[in-house]
Amino acid sequence: MKKWIVMLAMLSLLTACAQTPGPAELTELSVATSESADAEETPAPISTAEPTATPTATPTATPEPTVTPAPTPSATPAATPAPTPAPTPEPTATPTAEPAPAQVSMSYGAVPFDLAAGTEQWWSIDSSDSAYWAVQENINAMRAAGGLAPLAMDSGLSAAADARCESFVAGAPFDHSGMTTRSEICAAGPLGSASAVCTGWQGSPAHYANIMEPSFTSMGVGCWFCQTAEGQYTYWVVTFN
Fold first, then answer.
1. Angle at which helices 194-202 and 130-145 pack, to 10 degrees?
2. 89-100 pLDDT, tens per residue?
3. How many H helices and E strands in the chain?
4. Is residue 183 within 8 Å of residue 239, measured between CB atoms?
5. Conformational region of residue 225, where left means phi above 0, alpha means psi within -120 to 50, and beta covers everything else
6. pTM of the predicted protein model
7. What angle do CA 102, 105, 109 make, to 5 degrees?
């Protein structure tokens, strides 16, 4: 019986020795435990500094659109200014009337239409025709009645007057745009005599003023005429210098 007790006691001792770790295992365990303890007991340092925030650009506020206020209608409309009255025209003095031309005896000086009868062509007068000299006589009679000196007949001025009549027959404008002398007077129509055309010029203020120009000393005469079944036609020109 004791033998079994002794054997059981030895068996118990052997079992206890087998469960106790050796020195090497304790060291390794201690090291591992030390690192674990340090990890558990020594917390990682906590930074108390405020985190540096990355600066962000401050957005620029978009200005609100300017709104033009609507005009406030007024209850009473503004009065329209009264129109400026038209000025009253001042009466002007009555212009002094030019004295009427003195009545003078006109030389007849017929245009030789018999030369043109039946031809339906234009003809012209020259110094061989009575109408040529009658125009000079009538113009000088008007000047004499106004106290002016007579005008001498100038062949060069007569040639210019004849050329002007020819231009009218050819269709040039019946005006003074083609005048080649210092001044001229013209006439057109069925004026078959020197007395007829000079009476017409005497009754026209503008033509009569040319005839009565004191500075003129010479003149020329031209006349072209035509006779057709429809009637008689003439162009007259007197040139001055």
1. 30
2. 333 334 334 567
3. 7, 5
4. yes
5. beta
6. 0.60
7. 130
